[in-house]
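Sorry, I am new here, but would you mind making up a protein's amino acid sequence and the tokens describing how it folds?
***
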Amino acid sequence: MKRKIIGFLAARLDEPYQHSVWSGAVEEAEKLGITLIFFGGQRLESPVGFEALDNIAFNLAARSHLDALVVMTNVIGTYLTQDEILVFMNRLKKVPLVSVGVEIPGIHSVFIDNSGGMTAIAEHLVKVHRRREFLFLAGPINHNESIAREKEFSQHLKMLLGNEFILRIEYCNFQENEAWDTVGRLISQGLSFDAIVAANDLMAMGALRALAEAGIRVPEEVSVTGFDDTEDSRFSIPPLTTIRQGTCELGRQAIRSLSINLGLLPKAHMIMHRTPVSLVIRESCGCSSIPEHDFCNDQRLQTYQIGSGENSDAGVLLQLANDVNTALSRGRNPATIQYRHLEAPYLEKAQVIIAEGIARYQASLRRSVERRAAVLREIEASLVSSFALTDILSAVAAGTRTLGISACYLALFESKGITPEWARLLLASEGNKTRILAPYGVRFRTVDILPGGLPDNWKSYVVEPLRFGEERLGYLVCTADSEDRQVFEALRDQVSGAIKGALLMTAERDRERNLEHQVRIRTIELSRMNEQLREEIERRRALERELLDISNDIMASIGRDIHDDLCQNIAGIGLMAAILEGNLRRLDGPGAAEAANAAASIAHAASKTASQAKGMARGLYPAELEAKGLVAAVGELVKAAQNRSNMAITLEVSPGFTIKNSEKALHLYRIIQEALNNAVTHSKASHIQVSLKGDRESVEVMVADNGIGFNPQRVQTVGLGLRILKYRSSLIGGELRIRALDPGCCVSCRVVR
């Protein structure tokens, strides 16, 4: 028959109270052949942000194929009301449920019978230690267990002392650090109290720490008591007086309750739902070390009693010593072995046997902690030494084996969300066999927890959530066979950080590869586009050059036609008009003089027109440029502009200025011509300077005026003239500059000879 699988929902396996309940549940599950899975989360609706993120394990448990669920509602429901807890439990009701610590209507519940615990503490502190000023450290304001403990304590104080006592209540949410902070704050405010009563051992530990830091002696000045009798309470300084709960029995009862529901046990096996409490007196209240009162029904505790018959000899002590050794071999504290009604010298010898056993247990714990710390340091060193996912998974597998964990599995979610439907198994480590399945892994539905479900090779597992910041990464599944209860959370935190680093590095590498691929594609595209653009630019340049050459040829042709034909024709008209004038003046007839004057006017107009036509011809076709060079052509250009405008235009030529390249000479001439025309037409200047300068390497032509100047920002938006200037300059490899003067403007072009 397939093994039943029961989920165990709690907050932290390393917290003594929860671990004790879990241990009892594991023992009972082993007896019944049940597989038990610890789902570690945090308190529901916690105001602490990271705690809510850790509850992915609860969501996973709710989705998984489990046969039943144990829910430690008194732990994970710290911040919930009774109705809110019921709503949460109803969401899990697809399988049989049992609530631990909180009685919920309609749901099987096992819980501690708190009655009598706080009464015993009040009796002891008032009657034995004469305490009158009390500080009560409570859990959350609306927590039922905390309310019951607080109410019982305050009512019994009133019954014992009437109104002759002081009671201050502080709410510390069952947390050690909150209690430490609260007690430290009250001490700094000068509050006086002679007893601190905590509603659980964790808060009592926080109070002990705050008192020690303030230099207040416990128990001489202040008595401190707790509630739960966790393992840590036996080793506090001083050892903590507390209320013992049958926490292991709670776990066993929870499993038995579900086993009956699943048909694995008859109903007769469910004897009780409530477990009693008992007062454990140690040194923190002010008592010396005395045998603990034993009112606990925990079936694991062995009670030795000297009376008569075979129990009256030293064989009882030998049996006690054997049981101490047995407890140590199973990793249990011998302090759980009770003894009573022993008479001297057996009482003293029994105390020595137990004390030696406790000392050996503490030494074993210390070695275990040191070993765990060393292994975790090695794992951490391995994890941080590489961001390769396969290396990290190998380090996790090796580390878990060293920590005594028989099997370890690591799964990462495929998508974001509270509990994604799909995950990928990247690591499966079982004994000495390790399978690294990265980078792709084995895809499976998270309802199965692992591909194909949990192996039947082991009886209990721990599921720890993997998260980094606010990101849910996945979860770690380990066998629960490590003797060190604190190893799972420490391992989870280390693995989470390392996995996130590896994922970031993988994402960065993928991004780089994708970027490189995109760059290659884009480079090819750009190269192709650049080639096309280069070809287009060359075509345009060739076209522009051809158009400019055609323009130059047309202008030269028109200039030659004007010079050779039009000017000659106009000159001929002028000559004919002059001959006509002479003939008319020799006539004496009426109107001859008037006609002669008209002919003279025609001759003058023809002469003037011929002169203007010659100027136009020179502009279109600088014949002097070919015949006499650039200097002479520019001189004629300046003279013509001066005659045309009546402006003061001067020409400055540096000694030795020459340029032999006819193409460069033509373009420089055109640049001077365009710049000079712009200055004459638009500058409103009184003086224009045309300069021709040169040195061994280059020549420079310049047209400067003292006119109204220009707006430099408009240079990029001016018309065709300046664009042609720039183009002509680029054709001959020149550097065209247009700059403002104060006042005026200067256009220059420098070109290599």
